[in-house]
Write a structure and sequence with these properties.
The protein has a domain of 130 residues. The chain is built from 10 helices and no strands. α3 runs antiparallel to α4 and α4 runs antiparallel to α5.
Length: 191
């Protein structure tokens, strides 16, 4: 009933992972609307989203969803918002995010970037790989992730506040007796 009329080939499925057929604009608009409709206080939604954005900058690539869900649960914020925040990291944005995080880590560690060192470290995994690649990624992801999380926290909080205020106004306009706290006439007759 809910299947496609024509099945997609494995190549088409792989292309959908990198570039959605509806486009990134429509996909991001859909995620924004899902975020606005979450039924939670604006602070919890915004903080959950910021946690997801922060975790998407971390070098733990296979654990992003689990880590953001865990941190959101521990901090008692909206878990769904944190999972949506992870979608900031995708195949298009990861190269830019990783370059920024790596360079920040190199600067924070006080190391100079040597030409060709990264390629050699990628070819042979050993203890120096951890020191040359993972440590700058880990150290650099903290300040960059915090800044990115803060950059998303305030617009998301304001957007959720505006959406919830508009939703309340529509409810008051369409259901004035329920909004005032009065019992509707059809339920009082049944009592």
């Amino acid at each position: 009933m809910f299947k496609r009329r024509t099945k997609r080939s494995p190549l088409q499925k792989a292309r959908e992972l990198v570039w959605p057929s509806s486009g990134y604009r429509r996909a991001s608009l859909y995620l924004w609307r899902r975020l606005m409709r979450l039924n939670a206080p604006p602070h919890r939604v915004a903080l959950g989203f910021a946690i997801g954005v922060f975790i998407s900058f971390s070098p733990f690539l296979g654990l992003h969803l689990a880590l953001s869900g865990l941190f959101a649960w521990l901090l008692r914020v909206n878990v769904a918002a944190s999972l949506l925040g992870n979608f900031l990291g995708n195949p298009v944005t990861y190269p830019f995010m990783w370059a920024c995080v790596y360079q920040t880590g190199i600067l924070m560690l006080g190391e100079s970037h040597t030409e060709g060192g990264t390629e050699l470290a990628l070819l042979s995994f050993n203890a120096t790989t951890i020191q040359e690649l993972f440590l700058p990624f880990l150290i650099g992801s903290i300040p960059v992730g915090i800044l990115a999380g803060l950059a998303f926290y305030f617009p998301v909080k304001k957007g959720v506040e505006n959406f919830q205020a508009a939703r309340r106004a529509r409810f008051v306009k369409t259901h004035p007796t329920l909004a005032a706290g009065a019992i509707p006439s059809h339920t009082s007759e049944a009592l």
